[in-house]
From TrEMBL, chain A:
Keywords of the record: Dioxygenase, Oxidoreductase
Family: Belongs to the intradiol ring-cleavage dioxygenase family.
Record-listed E.C. numbers: 1.13.11.3
Annotated ranges, domain Intradiol ring-cleavage dioxygenases: 31-104
Stored Gene3D superfamilies: Aromatic compound dioxygenase (2.60.130.10)
Superkingdom of origin organism: Bacteria
Enzyme class per UniProt: oxidoreductase
Annotated protein name in UniProt: Protocatechuate 3,4-dioxygenase subunit alpha
Single annotated GO MF: protocatechuate 3,4-dioxygenase activity
UniProtKB/TrEMBL annotation, chain B:
Domain Intradiol ring-cleavage dioxygenases: residue ranges: 93-121
Enzyme Commission number(s): 1.13.11.3
Protein name per the record: Protocatechuate 3,4-dioxygenase subunit beta
Taxon lineage: Bacteria, Bacillati, Actinomycetota, Actinomycetes, Propionibacteriales
GO BP annotations, alphabetical order: 3,4-dihydroxybenzoate catabolic process
Family of this protein: Belongs to the intradiol ring-cleavage dioxygenase family.
Keyword tags: Dioxygenase, Oxidoreductase
SUPFAM superfamilies noted in UniProt: Aromatic compound dioxygenase
InterPro entries recorded: Intradiol_dOase_C, Intradiol_dOase_core, Intradiol_RC_Dioxygenase, PCDO_beta_N, Protocat_dOase_b
Entry keyword annotation includes Metal-binding: no
GO molecular function, one term: ferric iron binding
Length: 182, 254
């Protein structure tokens, strides 16, 4: 049980691009690595317009379902899988990651933890990008969100794995709150 | 015909109406509202549905690790990155990052970015005609120490104009990006300076509708941190949300 009140968040604002991106931020593995897959998508607003100033982060297990606890995300050495990636959106609202598909952690369905920041978005948003279920039973969370569950599952396309983020309106992504958030 | 930009008075009235409704409701809020119309850019960018409750599991119970390999200790000093001394009021900002139980968040990444003393960012989209400072990038990173303490040497940023409405100015602030020990603690926020006359006028600051909660973003001037004839000291502590990992899970993964 938390005893202290959390510091409030604020928008990332429009001017983060010279501060937060870093070389290799979106390449959790080098392109061409065996098993490498492109995770990509577009962040759109309530009018369907792409966000050119959003930042998407992912945090994931490795293919064996091991939670990485290794340093080096900001100075990638080409072989250490750290599980963390960061991608600002481009002029078309698109983000991309070159990564490996996460495995199941402790028997759960495999998913990428996703955080979204943007100018105009006053606090960060959390969501999950599940790998395609491929016949697996939905878990408790997917079941509990009902007919919006599709917004939490990536689609396989010709580029790899597609996960669009809709901040508002039709097809609005399910965003998550965890115990202790208010 | 382009519409006339709205005046500060229009924004003020909306801020006041929301503040009044909040007081009447009598339910404490501690985070900003994402649906806060006085900040016009939020209109199409806030989710309209309530966030869905999830119990953190698997990867969400852990956070990325950063270390000496990621950060050069010199990145914590924003006044030495370009050789010359930047213009403005040199300052130290330091504080502790703790979780909701007051435990220090150790050896974790803190990133900051800010405008220069004239209120100008290096960013190419910054239209403010104030001069760039060739000796200042406004970007810093550090790792917290074993007590959760971070520390940056920098210069005090200036307020800057923006286009939310006519004559809109942001109070001086430093952007902070923080990680905890759980993925669920990830946050980005802004630190402000005591007594800023722009607080009441700023829809981003006022999007935190609770006055006590807003004040959590305001640093305090700490004379004991000031260094004679060198710099002024500010203190700002950060509390992340609670950690969800149990001691048992800690052991399992050791
Ligand atoms: Fe700013």
């Amino acid at each position: 049980m938390s005893t202290l009140t959390a510091t409030p968040g604020q928008t990332i604002g429009p001017f983060f691009h010279y501060a937060l991106p870093f070389d290799g931020d979106r390449e959790l593995v080098a392109p061409g690595t065996p098993g490498a897959v492109l995770l990509h998508g577009t962040v759109t607003d309530g009018a369907g317009a792409p966000l050119q100033d959003a930042l998407v982060e992912i945090w994931q297990a490795d293919p064996a379902g091991v939670v990485p606890q290794r340093t080096g995300s900001m100075r990638r050495d080409g072989h250490t899988f750290t599980g963390f990636g960061r991608s600002s959106t481009d002029i078309t609202g698109r983000y991309t990651f070159t990564t490996l598909e996460p495995g199941s952690v402790d028997g759960g369905l495999p998913f990428f933890g996703v955080t979204v920041f943007a100018r105009g978005l006053l606090n960060r948003l959390f969501t999950r990008a599940y790998l395609p279920l491929d016949g697996a039973e939905p878990d408790a969370l997917l079941t509990s969100v009902g007919d919006r569950a599709g917004t939490l599952v990536v689609e396989r396309d010709e580029h790899g794995l597609r996960f669009d983020v809709r901040l508002q309106g039709e097809g609005e992504t399910v965003f998550l709150t965890y115990p202790g958030h208010s | 015909m382009t519409p006339q930009p709205e005046t500060q008075a229009v924004i003020d009235a909306e801020i006041a109406a929301t503040a009044h409704a909040y007081e009447q409701a009598g339910v404490e809020e501690t985070q900003p509202r994402v649906d806060y119309a006085p900040y016009r850019s939020s209109l199409l960018r806030h989710p309209t549905k309530d966030p869905h409750h999830a119990d953190p599991e698997g990867i969400e119970l852990w956070a990325p690790c950063f270390g000496e390999r990621d950060i050069d200790p010199l990145e914590a000093d924003l006044t030495i990155q370009r050789g010359g001394e930047p213009q403005g009021e040199k300052m130290l900002v330091t504080g502790r990052v703790v979780d909701g139980d007051g435990r220090p968040v150790r050896r974790q990444l803190v990133e900051i970015w800010q405008a220069n003393a004239g209120g100008r960012y290096i960013h190419k989209r910054d239209q403010h005609p104030a001069p760039l400072d060739p000796s200042f990038t406004g970007v810093g990173r550090c790792l917290t120490d074993d007590d959760g303490t971070y520390s940056f040497t920098t210069i005090k940023p200036g307020p800057y104009p923006w286009r939310n409405h006519l004559n809109a100015w942001r109070p001086a602030h430093i952007h902070f990006s923080l990680f905890g020990t759980d993925f669920t603690q990830r946050m980005i926020t802004q630190m402000y300076f005591p007594g800023d006359p722009l607080f009441a006028l700023d829809p981003i600051y006022q999007s935190i509708v609770d006055p006590k909660a807003r004040e959590r973003l305001v640093s305090t001037y700490d004379h004991d941190l000031s260094v004679p004839e060198v710099l002024m000291g500010y203190r700002w502590d950060i509390v992340l949300t609670g950690s969800h990992r149990t001691p048992l899970e800690e052991e399992d993964h050791q």
